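thread: overnight batch results

M.L. [08:02]
morning all. the overnight job finished for the chain we discussed friday. pasting input first so we're all looking at the same thing
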Amino acid sequence: MDRRYRLTNSSDFKRVRHTGQSFAHPFVLLIVSENQLDHARFGVSASRSVGNAVQRNRAKRRLREAFRIFLPQISPGWDIVAIARPALLDASWEKLQRALLSKLNQAGLIDAG
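M.L. [08:03]
and the structure it wrote out:
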C-alpha cells in the first residue's frame, strides 16, 4: 500500500483512538476519525493477545491486504485504525473480507458510487 494511505505516527494513532468512533467485530476492531485530507489513511495494530511476533505480523499483513482491496471504495477524508483480534488468524480470507466490509459499511465509509 502506498505510504500516503498509511498512518505511521504514534500521534496519529493516539488521535484516532481518542477522538474516533469504534466498530467491533470478533476479527477486528475498527476505529474511525475524520481527517482533513483528500484520501483515507489506514493503520493496523496487533497486541500481544493475538499471539507471538510471527502471528501478530501475519494478522497485520492480512488486514493491510484487505484494506488495499477496499481502498478504491472507501470515502476520502478518514483515518482508520484496525486492531487485530486473536480470531482473525483462524478466519478464512472470505470471512475476513466480509467482516471488514460489514464494519466499513456500518461506519458509513463505503462510497455508493
